[in-house]
Amino acid sequence: MAMIICPFCKTEIAADATVCHGCGARKGYGPDNHGGVHSGGSIGFLAVVCAILIFVGLSLGGSWLFFTLLGGLGLPFCLFPLLSGPKWYR
Ligand SMILES: [Zn+2]
């Protein structure tokens, strides 16, 4: 099995591991609000929510464009981590 080195404690761990057994660092797509990290699924879900906000704002117009603005601000924050791949967080 392929092995990688934890960037924090230099422990050798399996390449597909999502948690370092040496220091507890976690691999994911950005820190969440609960002391963990986002999985690909949860950050993908947020990206879809932002896309829906953009679509709703554009189709309803008027003051609903505020939602387009919100989604437009949030979408890059969701897409950028997805495109750059998972990173280690501790
Ligand atoms: Zn580690």
Q: If you had to describe this structure to a student in words, what would you say it looks like?
A:
With 90 residues, this protein is α+β, with helices and mostly antiparallel strands. The strands form two sheets. It has a two-stranded antiparallel sheet with strand order 1-2. Strands 3-4 form a two-stranded antiparallel sheet. The protein is 46% helix and 13% strand. The protein has two helices and four strands; from the N terminus they run E-E-E-H-H-E. It is elongated. The longest helix has 21 residues, at 40-60. The protein has one domain (3-89). The structure holds zinc ion. Zinc ion binds next to loops.
Quick overview of this protein structure:
The chain has helices spanning 40-60, 65-84, and strands spanning 3-5, 12-14, 26-28, 87-89. The protein is α+β, with helices and mostly antiparallel strands and 90 residues long. The chain has one domain (3-89).
The kinds of small molecule bound in this structure are:
zinc ion
User: What is the averaged pLDDT score?
Assistant: 93
Amount of helix: 40-55%
State the distance separating the first and last CA atoms: 24 Å
Biggest sheet, strands in spatial order?
1-2
**Alpha plus pi helix count:** 2
Unreliable parts: none
> Which sheet architecture does the biggest sheet show?
2 strands, antiparallel
Structural class: alpha+beta
Using DSSP, what is the number of strands?
A: 4
Order of helices and strands: EEEHHE
β-strand percent reads: 5-15%
